[in-house]
Design a protein that fits this description.
heterotrimer, A alpha/beta (354), B mainly alpha (368), C alpha+beta (491), B: 368 residues, Amino acid/polyamine transporter I, C: 491 residues, alpha+beta, five-stranded antiparallel sheet, 15 helices
C-alpha cells in the first residue's frame, strides 16, 4: 500500500495528461471547406457554440484561410478564446467548387486525427459551404446539430443511402468502388438534400438527382425504408418501401453480362384512383413501377459508365464472384460492359383504408 | 547460486494451487493481448479475404502444441526447468531455460510497449512512456507479489470485465459488406504460409503453462479446460477478423495500424459515443494479465533455476520491464520488436516445443 | 483490623515487596460480636442480600469453623480458598464476592452476592431494523446475549468457549460455533487469534474485530458484526464461527465474503424475487457510488468525445462559469457531503436530521447559485452518497465512501485509463484478501457457481440445499426435502 502511494504521488507530480475540460474548449460542431480565390488556398469555416451563462448558449462561426486544413485549424485557433476541439465534429461540408478540384489533402488530414469520429457526416454543398453554415437558421440550428440530424434522419427514414465518413473512406480506398456524398443546397430557411455528389477518386464528377435517390439506394444496399413517387398519364401514387434486396448475377457466356436483381416490397401510401384494393390493379401498378425503376436505374448506370465510375460497387460484386479476378481488365472493360437491372416489385398492403 | 533447485519437480503448497477450470482464464488471458487490436492488417496483407482461414489454422496449431506440452508435462511432471534439467543435465539446461525466461519477459515488454503506443496515438498524445510504464509495472508487481492465486484471479476478472467487448463487433458487421469475404481460397500456398507465420504472434502465450503447470490441482482435467480456452481465443480472433474484413475495404485496412480501434469509432450508443476510448481503457485490463503472467513466469523461472527468492527476482525483472519500453521511441522500433518476438515465438512453438516433445517421448517418465 | 494487618505484613515479609497490595477500596468489617470479618466493595455487592442472608447467619453461628461455615452458609456457588494471595483476593472481591475470614485461619470463603446491574431492556435493533421478522437486538450484557442465541439454538452441538481478554478490563468473550458443522480450522484460527490478543482494555467487540482481521491494513472489514441475534444464529448454522464480547451489543462472525456485506438480513424474510432484486440493486448502488463521480470527472476532463451530442450542451452549460477543474469540484462536493454526514452523526438524532436536510438543501442550492459547482455533478455526488448508504453493514458502507476518494483523484490524472487501473488495484487487493484464511471474494472468485444462489441474488429456500463451499463445513447438506411433482400429481 505504501508503495502504491509513493507511485501515485510520483505519477501525479510527473504527468497529468493534457486536459480537455468540457468548458475550456471550443467544441466545433461543423466544419466547412471552400475554395479560396488565391491559388492552392482553402477557406475553412467552423461552427461552435458559445456558452454565455448557465442557461443560454449561441452558435457562432469563424472563418480562416490557409493552404491545408491543418493550417486553417491553426489560423482559427489563433482567433478563439479556448483551444479548438475537433472531437465532436458531426458534419463536414465541402463546396462543389472545392470538391471538383479534389479534397484529398483535407480528407487525409481529417482521417489522421484520432479525435475525428467515423460516424460523422460528409456532404458537398452547391453553394459555398461558408454561405450555408453562416446562414441564419434562427430556430432550426440552435445547437449546431441541424445539419447532421437532417442527414441522419433522411438516411434512417427516407431515400438517402447510409453515407458517412467511413463509407466515404471505404469507397475512396477501394479498387472497385467510387465514393458518393450527399449533395446539399440552401433553400430559404433550410438546407435541402439535392441529391448525391459522385466522386471519381477525390474529385467530384457529377450528381445524382434527388428523384433518383431511391433508385440509387435500392441499387447500392438492402434497405428497409424509402418512398417512391410514381406517375403515369392516368394516375399518380406513392410507394412506401418496406424491404428491398439486391442480388447480383453474372453471365460469362456468351459475353460478360452483369444482372442486378432487385426485390422491392412496399405498400401504397397514396394513390389517385380509388380501386387500389383490386388485385388486378395492384398487379398493373407493380408492373408500372418495375418498368419505371428499371428505366431510372439504367439511366443511372449508363451515367456511371459514361463517367467511368462505380459508386454501386458493381466491380466489387463481380470480384467476389469471380476467381482470378483481373483488376486491369475490369477497369478497361467497365465502360462498355453490359449491365442490366431487373426489378420485381411486390405491393403487400394498400394503406389502412381501401 | 544453487543450480540444483530445478533437479526436482517443485513442491507447491495445496493452498497455492488452482482448480482446473481456472486454466481456461489463464490460457485466454495469456493469448489475447493488445495484438487483437491490429493483427488482422498483418495477415490480410498476404491473404486478404481468406484471413479467417489462417486464424482457424493457427488456432488448430495451438491445440496441437498445447497437447504436446501437456503430454510431456503429464509424463514427467514438474515444469520446463525440471524438464530441461532432466533432459540436458545441470549445465546444459541453463541455456534453454535462460532463453525461455528472456523470451517470456520480452513478450511482456512487447505487449506493454505496444499498448503504450496505442494510448499515445489514440488517447493521450504526449503522455511520457515512462509514466504509463511505471503505472503498469507497479500494478503488475503488486499483483504478482500476491502470488499465483491472485494472478489467476486477475486473469478471471480481466476475462469477465472485457469479454462483453465482443458485442461491439455487432456494429461493424452490421455496417459491413459480406462480399468482402469472397471468393474463398484464392491465394497461393506461399501466401498462406507467410500469413500463418505472422499469425503465430497472436497465439503465443500458451508457453507460460510451462511455468505454472505445477500449480494445477488436477492437470488431466485442466488440459480439457486449456483446450477450451485456446478454442475461445480462436473464436475471439475469428470474430475480430471477420468483422474487420467486412468493415474495411482491403486498401483502407492496409492504411490502419489499429483496425479494431477504428471499428469502434462507429459504435454509438444512446449514452455514449466514440467507443474506442472505452475500448482502450478496457484493454488496459486485458494487457494487465499478459504482464502479470509474463512477470510471474519469468521470476518463477529465475527462482527455479538459481534458487533465488522469487520476490528478489520479481523486483529485478519489474525494473527491466519498466525501463526497456522507455528505450523504444517510435512506431518503427515497436513494430520491429513485435516482428522479432513473432519470429522467436514461431520457432519456439513450432520448432522447439515439438523437439522437446520428441525428446520427452524417448526419456523415461516419472516413477510413481 | 489488627489481625488483618498482621496477615498482610507477614505475607509481604514472606514474598518481598513485589507482592501486590490489597485493593484499598475493599471495606473490611467486623461483623460485630464474632471472630468473623467480612471484606467487600460496597458498590459491587447486593447490600440487601448481605444484610438479610449473610450477616444474620454469621451472627447466629459465629462459632463455626471455616469448613463448617462453608458447608452451612445457605448460598450457592461460594468458594473456599486456602491461604489465598492478595491478587486472588482482589480479583474475587472485584468480581462481586464477599470475603469471609475467621480470626484464627488464613483461609477465606468467598460468597458471591453480586449486585445485579440494572440492564438495558432488550430493544429493537436500530441499525439493522427490519419491518418484518424478529425485533430483538443484543444488549451490553453477554449473559443476556448468550441467552438470546441459546434460546434460538436449543441444540447440544452449540459449543460456547469462554475467554478473558484485556489485561485490565478482563472482558469476557464467548466463542460460539456448531460442533458438528463448523470447520475446525476456522474455529481454531478464531480461538488462536483471540487468545493471542494482548491489550489492556477491550471495551467493545470492535476492538477485537480490528485486532483479529487477516489484513489489518485493509480498509475493507473482514468480519461482520451485527446487533441481530437471529443473524448470528443463521451464521452459526451455516457453519461460521461467532464471538460475543461482554459490554458490546454486537455479535461478530466469520469467515465472510464480500457479497455478504450487501445482504441485509431481512432479505430472508422477503420473497426471494424481491430479495434478489434488492440485493442486485444494492450491488449496483455500490458500483455507482464508487465509479459515478470518477467517471464523470474523467469524461468531462479528458474525453469529451464520449458525450453524445444531445447531452453535450446540458453538461457544458452546467459547467460554464465554474472556476475549479472538475476534480477539485468533485472533491469539494464529496467532502461537503461527508461533513454533513459526520455532523449529523455527532449531533442528537433530531438536530442531526435537521442539519442533514437543511444543510444539504441550503449548501447545495447556494453553491450552484454561486457558480461554485455544477448542478449535474451535485446530482451525481448526492446520488452516490445516497447509494453508499444502501449497504446494510455499517462498516462496509464507510469503506465504500472512503474508496471513492482515491478513485476521484485517479480520474483526475489520466481519465478513464487511471480509473481502470484503480479498479484493478482494488480488485487485486480484494483477491488477496482473506477472512479467517478463506477467500474474501468467494463465490465470485474462485468462481463457485453453486454458491451464487445466496450471494448477489437469493434464490428460494428449496434451492439452498448446501452450505457455502467457502466455509469448508463438515456437514455439507442443509436440507433435502424438495420433491418435484409431475403435472396433476398429488401426494
Amino acid at each position: 500500500m505504501k508503495k502504491s502511494l509513493v507511485l501515485l504521488l510520483a505519477v501525479v507530480l510527473s504527468s497529468c495528461a493534457p486536459k480537455e475540460v468540457l468548458d475550456d474548449i471550443t467544441i466545433v460542431k461543423s466544419i466547412g471547406f471552400d475554395l479560396h480565390p488565391k491559388k492552392d488556398h482553402i477557406t475553412g469555416t467552423i461552427l461552435f457554440p458559445i456558452f454565455i451563462n448557465e442557461e443560454t448558449f449561441k452558435i457562432n462561426h469563424l472563418t480562416a484561410t490557409g493552404e491545408t486544413a491543418r493550417e486553417v485549424a491553426l489560423e482559427l485557433n489563433e482567433m478563439t478564446a479556448k483551444p479548438i476541439f475537433a472531437g465532436k465534429v458531426n458534419t463536414i461540408m465541402f463546396s462543389q467548387k472545392l470538391a471538383e478540384k479534389g479534397i484529398l489533402e483535407t480528407i487525409d488530414t481529417l482521417q489522421r486525427d484520432p479525435g475525428i469520429g467515423r460516424a460523422i457526416f460528409l456532404a458537398v454543398t452547391k453553394e459555398d459551404a461558408k454561405k450555408i453554415m453562416t446562414h441564419n437558421f434562427e430556430l432550426t440550428n440552435t445547437d449546431g446539430n441541424y445539419f447532421s440530424h437532417m442527414i441522419e434522419q433522411n438516411e434512417h427514414f427516407s431515400n438517402l443511402p447510409r453515407l458517412n465518413f467511413h463509407t466515404f473512406l471505404y469507397a475512396y480506398y477501394h479498387n472497385n468502388m467510387d465514393a458518393v456524398l450527399p449533395y446539399l443546397t440552401l433553400k430559404k430557411n433550410a438546407v435541402k438534400i439535392k441529391g448525391l455528389a459522385l466522386f471519381k477518386g477525390d474529385k467530384m464528377v457529377g450528381t445524382v438527382h434527388e428523384q433518383q435517390l431511391l433508385t440509387f439506394k435500392t441499387l447500392i444496399e438492402p434497405t428497409k425504408e424509402g418512398s417512391y413517387q410514381f406517375a403515369t398519364r392516368s394516375y399518380r401514387g406513392n410507394l412506401e418501401v418496406l424491404k428491398s434486396k439486391i442480388h447480383y448475377k453474372l453471365f460469362q457466356k456468351p459475353h460478360h453480362h452483369v444482372l442486378l436483381e432487385v426485390n422491392v416490397k412496399g405498400r401504397l401510401n397514396e394513390y389517385t384512383k380509388m380501386d387500389a384494393g383490386d388485385p388486378k390493379v395492384i398487379k398493373s401498378i407493380e408492373k408500372n413501377i418495375e418498368a419505371d425503376l428499371e428505366k431510372e436505374s439504367m439511366k443511372l448506370i449508363r451515367k456511371f459508365q459514361r463517367l467511368n465510375i462505380d459508386p454501386l460497387g458493381i466491380g466489387e460484386n463481380v470480384r467476389a464472384r469471380t476467381r482470378a479476378f483481373n483488376q486491369k481488365e475490369w477497369k478497361r472493360d467497365y465502360k462498355d460492359l453490359k449491365i442490366s437491372v431487373d426489378y420485381s416489385v411486390e405491393i403487400t398492403e394498400a394503406g389502412i383504408a381501401q | 547460486m544453487n543450480l540444483t533447485n530445478s533437479k526436482y519437480p517443485p513442491s507447491v503448497h495445496k493452498n497455492a494451487r488452482i482448480s482446473p477450470q481456472l486454466v481456461f482464464f489463464l490460457i485466454v488471458g495469456s493469448q489475447v493481448g493488445v495484438g487483437i487490436l491490429g493483427f488482422v492488417r498483418y495477415i490480410a496483407e498476404f491473404v486478404n479475404q481468406d484471413s479467417w482461414i489462417i486464424v482457424i489454422a493457427g488456432g488448430l496449431g495451438v491445440h496441437l502444441i498445447l497437447w504436446m506440452m501437456f503430454s510431456m508435462l503429464n509424463k514427467h511432471g514438474g515444469d520446463l526447468f525440471y524438464l530441461h534439467h532432466k533432459f540436458f543435465g545441470k549445465w546444459l539446461a541453463l541455456v534453454p531455460s535462460l532463453l525461455f525466461i528472456v523470451y517470456i519477459l520480452v513478450t511482456g515488454i512487447v505487449v506493454l510497449r505496444t499498448y503504450i503506443e496505442a494510448v499515445q496515438n489514440w488517447m493521450f498524445p504526449g503522455l511520457p512512456t515512462w509514466a504509463i510504464s511505471l503505472f503498469f509495472v507497479a500494478l503488475t508487481y503488486y499483483i504478482v507479489s500476491k502470488g499465483f492465486r491472485v494472478v489467476t484471479g486477475i486473469a478471471y476478472f480481466s476475462f469477465v470485465l472485457s469479454v462483453w467487448l465482443i458485442f461491439s463487433h455487432y456494429f461493424p458487421i452490421k455496417f459491413g459488406h459480406s462480399i468482402n469475404l469472397l471468393p474463398v481460397l484464392s491465394y497461393s500456398f506461399k501466401d498462406y504460409f507467410e500469413a500463418f507465420k505472422i499469425m503465430v504472434l497472436s497465439y503465443v502465450g500458451i508457453e507460460y503453462l510451462f511455468a505454472y503447470y505445477p500449480f494445477l490441482h488436477d492437470p488431466k482435467k485442466a488440459q480439457k479446460w486449456a483446450h477450451i480456452g485456446a478454442a475461445t481465443t480462436t473464436f475471439f480472433y475469428l470474430l475480430t477478423t471477420i468483422s474487420t474484413l467486412m468493415y474495411f475495404s482491403p486498401k483502407q485496412l492496409q492504411r490502419l495500424t489499429w483496425p479494431t480501434l477504428m471499428e469502434w469509432k462507429i459504435v454509438t450508443l444512446p449514452f455514449i459515443e466514440r467507443f474506442e476510448y472505452i475500448g482502450i481503457t478496457v484493454f488496459a485490463i486485458v494487457i494487465l494479465i499478459n504482464l502479470a503472467l509474463s512477470l510471474w513466469s519469468s521470476s518463477r523461472g529465475i527462482h527455479r533455476m538459481f534458487d533465488i527468492k522469487q520476490r528478489t527476482a520479481l523486483v529485478l525483472l519489474s525494473i527491466i520491464l519498466f525501463v526497456i519500453p522507455v528505450l523504444f521511441t517510435n512506431r518503427v522500433e515497436v513494430d520491429e520488436l513485435n516482428n522479432m518476438v513473432g519470429k522467436v515465438g514461431t520457432y519456439l512453438l513450432y520448432g522447439y516445443i515439438p523437439l522437446l516433445f520428441l525428446i520427452s517421448l524417448v526419456k523415461k517418465g516419472e516413477q510413481k | 483490623m489488627n489481625f488483618l494487618k498482621s496477615i498482610l505484613t507477614a505475607k509481604s515479609a514472606q514474598k518481598g515487596s513485589k507482592e501486590t497490595s490489597l485493593d484499598t477500596n475493599i471495606l473490611w468489617e467486623e461483623t460485630g460480636i464474632s471472630d468473623w470479618k467480612t471484606g467487600y466493595i460496597q458498590t459491587l455487592i447486593n447490600l440487601e442480600r448481605f444484610d438479610q442472608e449473610v450477616l444474620p447467619f454469621l451472627q447466629k453461628n459465629q462459632s463455626l469453623s471455616i469448613s463448617e461455615m462453608f458447608q452451612q452458609l445457605p448460598i450457592t456457588n461460594k468458594k473456599w480458598c486456602k491461604n489465598p494471595d492478595n491478587q486472588t483476593i482482589n480479583e474475587l472481591i472485584l468480581q462481586g464476592n464477599i470475603a469471609l475470614v475467621k480470626r484464627s485461619s488464613k483461609d477465606m470463603i468467598f460468597v458471591p452476592i453480586r449486585k445485579e446491574q440494572s440492564l438495558r431492556q432488550i430493544s429493537v435493533p436500530e441499525v439493522e431494523f427490519s419491518v418484518i421478522g424478529p425485533k430483538e437486538g443484543f444488549i451490553e450484557d453477554i449473559d443476556t446475549n448468550l441467552l438470546l442465541i441459546q434460546k434460538r439454538l436449543p441444540t447440544s452441538s452449540l459449543q460456547i468457549d469462554f475467554l478473558e481478554i484485556g489485561t485490565r478490563t478482563k472482558s469476557k468473550v464467548a466463542i460460539l460455533y456448531l460442533k458438528d458443522v463448523a470447520d475446525e480450522e476456522n474455529v481454531n484460527t478464531m480461538k488462536q487469534r483471540l487468545s493471542e490478543i494482548e491489550y489492556d482494555h477491550i471495551l467493545d467487540s470492535s476492538y477485537l474485530v480490528q485486532m483479529i482481521e487477516d489484513n489489518k491494513m485493509s480498509i475493507f472489514p473482514q468480519f461482520i458484526d451485527t446487533e441481530r441475534p437471529d443473524r448470528v444464529v443463521a451464521a452459526l448454522v451455516e457453519g461460521k464461527v461467532a464471538f460475543l464480547t461482554n459490554g458490546s451489543p454486537h455479535g461478530t462472525y466469520g469467515p465472510v465474503s464480500l457479497v455478504e456485506f450487501f445482504a441485509a438480513f431481512d432479505d430472508y424474510f422477503l420473497s426471494w424475487h424481491i430479495a434478489s432484486l434488492f440485493r442486485i440493486m444494492r450491488i449496483f448502488a455500490v458500483i455507482f457510488s464508487i465509479f459515478a463521480t470518477p467517471l464523470y470527472v474523467a469524461v468531462i476532463t479528458y474525453h469529451p468525445e464520449l458525450i453524445p451530442d444531445d447531452l453535450m450542451s446540458t453538461l457544458t452549460t452546467s459547467r460554464t462559469d465554474i472556476p475549479f477543474p472538475p476534480v477539485l469540484e468533485a472533491l469539494f462536493l464529496e467532502l461537503t457531503i461527508e461533513l454533513l454526514r459526520e455532523a449529523g452523526a455527532r449531533l442528537p438524532t433530531k438536530v442531526g436530521q435537521t442539519i442533514g436536510i437543511v444543510g444539504g438543501i441550503v449548501i447545495g442550492t447556494a453553491s450552484v447559485d454561486a457558480g461554485l459547482t455544477s448542478n449535474v455533478l451535485l446530482i451525481l455526488v448526492a446520488l452516490s452518497a445516497l447509494a453508499s448508504f444502501t449497504t446494510p453493514v455499517y462498516r462496509m458502507s464507510n469503506s465504500i465512501r472512503i474508496v471513492r476518494f482515491p478513485m476521484i483523484i485517479l480520474s483526475g490524472i489520466w481519465g478513464l485509463l487511471s480509473v481502470a487501473l484503480g479498479l484493478m488495484t482494488i480488485l487485486t487487493h480484494l483477491l488477496a484478501l482473506t477472512s479467517l484464511g478463506r477467500p474474501y471474494l468467494a463465490p465470485i472468485y474462485p468462481p463457485r457457481i453453486k454458491d451464487w444462489k445466496d450471494s448477489f441474488i437469493r434464490l428460494p429456500f428449496f434451492t439452498q440445499k448446501e452450505r457455502p463451499k467457502q466455509l469448508r463445513v463438515k456437514e455439507k447438506e442443509k436440507i433435502n426435502w424438495w420433491k418435484k411433482r409431475d403435472i396433476d400429481e398429488f401426494d
